[in-house]
Amino acid sequence: MARTATFTAVPGTGGALMGVVGLAAALIAVRQPSPDRWLLVWLAAAALAAIVGVTAIVLKARRAALALDGRTARHFATGLIAPLGAGAAITYALWSAGLYSVMPGVWLLLYGTGVLIGGMFAVRVVRVTGLLFMAFGFAAVLMPQYGNVWLGAGFGALQTIGGIFIARRHGG
After folding, report:
1. Domain with 163 in it
2. Tens of pLDDT, residues 72-96
């Protein structure tokens, strides 16, 4: 019964790989000659990380014979996707206004919110990771001059560490 109430296909190895993408993005983005190029690096990294994450969820679910069309999986996905969709719209608005320095805080806060909400249907470490992403987001809001550092720390280091923890404790 507990198994049906918890989304257990959260990918540890895939999460760690997503973190590697985040670390690479932070290192590449900081060297870009313009804010638009910086944004392009992060958007490409987000797309690649999303592909890695979805693929990893599908593979883990198949290995564990878990259904991805059940109620708990749908709740997890909705909780994660809604804030990400809001983040996409807000990013467009910030880009239109030329407010690049605000983007890191928004991204970390909304991703953290999605992970926290989705994590309500997953193992505890997912919720904790969501809260930590949100803390990094608040730090990025308070220190926008270090936005790229906070992005690397969150989408890179935190994502990698959380992924490794999930892989070791919760089966890949």
Report:
1. 8-167
2. 888 888 999 999 999 999 999 999 9
